[in-house]
Predict the structure.
Amino acid sequence: MELKDKIDIKTLPNHIAIIMDGNGRWAKKRGKIRIFGHKNGVTAVRETAEAAAELGIKYLTLYAFSTENWNRPKYEVNALMHLLVQTINKEIKTLHDNNIRLLAIGNLKSLPKNSYNELMEAINETSRHDRMAMVLALSYSSRWEIVNTTKIIAEKVKSNNISIDDIDQNMFSSFLTTSSIPDPELLIRTSGEYRISNFLLWQIAYSELYFTDKLWPDFRKEDLYEAIIDYQRRERRFGMISEQINK
Ligand code: IPE
Ligand code: IPE
Ligand code: MG
């Protein structure tokens, strides 16, 4: 029996989010510069997106560049921004072929102009695709997002568009950059690090977390299947007790 056949299609996560980590170490192990790892990470993105779409996953969010990643050496930041444009150009076909819509979350205005324009063009071009949405988190961090949302709501209160009593979890979520995207059921992090690194802190309140030692450029379809199988073995209780879930 193949790994894929062990997946129960009826209880698939609707949304999987991934912290794609380990590109630098992958390159270093091969005696190459870090950028080589980032370039090879693109294959893993393609494989994962295809596997997710084939299974029937509706949302795949990929943490590609964090707010804190701006603090890396200038050379690496520039190379990553260049790679973003190159990858969008090259992989737009994969998106069309697989009927995948591209979305992005984060402080997108902080991206270099050509990266921003390229991204927006790809988002527009794929806006009618409806098999799966691939969400790129770019210049994203959760604390940035939460502060940003707070500012938006504060402005609306100040201009009397909403009253303080209207503010609840649903309203707050509706002003996050993920407002049109359901919370992920499953969060995967590669590279053997056990941390969240400022990713989707609000949205993962009840997500199942899955960690693998695989470095991101080595991540393949089978690795995604393994994570989903692991997820499907878990009991999600949302604060209740087992008997309530299984009644
Ligand atoms: C993840 O790989 C990609 C980005 C953060 C852009 P890293 O570049 O963090 O690789 P490691 O963690 O240093 O190996
Ligand atoms: C998290 O990886 C960000 C992305 C994968 C884009 P990092 O490599 O930046 O995280 P830390 O610094 O190890 O926590
Ligand atoms: Mg890293």
